[in-house]
Amino acid sequence: MRQVLREYRGSQRAFAEQIGLDATKLSKSLNGTRRFTAAELTRIAETGDVTVNWLLNGSDDAETVAAAPRRSALRHRSPDRPEEAGRYQQILDAAWHLIAERGYHSVRIADVARECGTSPATIHYHFPGRDDLLTEALRHSVRQAFDRQVAELHSITDAHERLLRLIELQLPTPGPLRLEWSIWLQMWNESALRPEMRVLHTDSYTRWHETIARTIQEGQHQGVFADTDAQDLTMMLTALIDGLGIQVLTERPGRSVERMRQALHDFVEREIVRK
Question: Which region, left, alpha or beta, applies to residue 230 given φ > 0 means left and ψ of -120 to 50 means alpha?
Fold first, then answer.
């Protein structure tokens, strides 16, 4: 955290304001008299252009509770110059929200430029084509999910509790999670139609699959989960999450976040927990 602050282009107080944290609380956390919350860790990571895994474990791909993204699924690092890095992040955030809210094919470079108060030429400087906006939007979502999972799960040692928390972090609740689901839904569609998009999709999805699988395997080692093949259980659980998530996102009658949560908990208790 101190290294992040050293590389930050503003003051410690300005950094605290940017992550929405009182400067006094930041000082207490730095002095070891207060722990950062999971939400604070994710905001620190995004503002400092690092991962939560790096903050907690010293490396982006350190072995942790969540599988690290493969290199192709990691967001391209922001430009080194502070003013360019800030503009890059502003453009990425705007594109991510516009694509999630309107749909990839309804978003033009000019729309992103208007949202950022800049010119289309500036957008093209950072993202040469519109496809680059979509691929970086997916990488942004992968990064957000990874940071959120590491921040929320790193202190949970019980695999059963961790699996239920993983499910909770994947529900398409209103706000950022529902927007992430929208990005994924569009990437699924593009990957089905365009083979060149499939490597990024596969590498991005593999991270989520591996996170579930290692949680189930740990639960089996702890004796709380059944000895059924962990890969088979992961395939069934992720397929159920995907299918229910799409039904909630498309507002199928009778499908809600609450109903999705209950169905997933029922599956875990019925198929994964040791009887």
Answer: alpha
